[in-house]
Structure formats: C-alpha cells, structure tokens
Design goal:
about 110 residues, 2 domains, 2 helices, 4-stranded antiparallel β-sheet
Length: about 110
C-alpha cells in the first residue's frame, strides 16, 4: 500500500506515467515513473502490513527497526491485558510476563 505525502490518498499501486526523453538510435525513449493516482504527485511512501497488529506501517530499509517496535507494542498490550484481567499493578504484570517468557522459551 502507498500513501501520498501531498494529498494523503491511500492506494495499492501508483499510476504509471511516461515522459518522452527524446530519441535513442531512432527509437522513442521514454522514462516511466509512479505517481499518486489522485493528485499525480511523485511524493508518496510505501507501507507494509504489520504481521502482529495487521495495521499498515511505513516501510523502512531497516526491517528489524519496526519488528522491534511491533514487539514492544505487543509486550505493552500483553502487560496491560494482564493488569486488567488480574487487577494487579504494572510491575507485577511485567514480572509475570517475563517469567512466562523465560519458561516458555527456555531462556
């Protein structure tokens, strides 16, 4: 998925435009490039679907960066769920979650 930085439009694939660059050895030379289908801006970003939250997150060259962020969000959600289910404070919920992770993954 893509999101235009100018108009905010979200789209699956950019519209392809062709610009005539002249001729090359007697044949027409075109340059193809993507634009927003709504406003035809060339300024847009690609987003990837998060495998954890199923929401779209801005794509980055450093995949580990947003995997770590998803992990942090998931841990935070888990701690909040433990707190609300058991009526305990943050530290108790965090310590329980860490204990379970150790037991389940044999760290």
């Amino acid at each position: 998925m893509f999101r235009c930085n100018d108009c905010g439009h979200e789209f699956i694939d950019p519209k392809i435009k062709h610009e005539n660059m002249g001729e090359f050895w007697g044949a027409r030379a075109d340059e193809a490039y993507g634009v927003c289908p709504e406003c035809e801006s060339e300024d847009f970003d690609e987003f990837d679907r998060c495998p954890v939250s199923n929401e779209y997150k801005k794509a980055t060259e450093d995949y580990n960066e947003y995997v770590v962020q998803w992990g942090k969000e998931m841990i935070c959600d888990t701690i909040t769920s433990i707190q609300s289910e058991w009526g305990c404070d943050y530290e108790t919920a965090k310590n329980f979650m860490l204990y379970m992770v150790e037991k389940c993954f044999d760290f």
